[in-house]
Structures are given as C-alpha cells and as structure tokens.
Amino acid sequence: MVPSLGRTVLYMLTEGDVAAINDRQRRIDTMPASTAATALLPNHNALRPGQVYPAVIVRVWGEPPTENAAVNLQVLLDGDHAYWATSRSQGDEPGQWHEPPRV
Asked: 2 CB contacts (<8 Å, ≥6 apart)?
C-alpha cells in the first residue's frame, strides 16, 4: 500500500514507545495541581509492547510517496490522548504500521 495523508492504519507499539508514553504520564502526574497543564491530564489503559492501535498518517516522507515511504503517525491510544510515532515504516513488526484487514 502506498501511504497517503489522513489514512487510518494499524501501528504496533515497541518497548521504547511504551516507555516514552509511560514516562510522559509520570511527568504529568508529578506536576503541581496548580499547573495549567493539569487541566489536560492524559489518561490511558495499561500498555504493552506488541499491542496494536489505530493510527492516522499525518506526514508522508518522499515525493512522490512509494510503498516503502516512512510516515509520521498519530497513534490513538485506549484513553484520552495520542502518541506521535515518527519516521515509521510499513511492516508487521513492532514499530511498524500496516493496512487494516478488510472485513
């Protein structure tokens, strides 16, 4: 599949992704209650490497795009925020995205 802007794909989390998301959550959790950012406290269910989440392609690298183009994704987590996964390739391994199966 040739990636295109706005397309919904499936993304598999890596150990590094989970660590980055959890680290961001820990930093927010330690902010003083008076901080304006506490109004935007993200919350999500537990994450594990290898879990697959829907993601929207927000940037495609290369002109014209090819099947092997790297993309930036907004990964929609099971909660109230997203994760920005940058320069990811197409495939079936952790850290890669793939087209959803047809139903």
From this structure: 65, 66, 67, 69
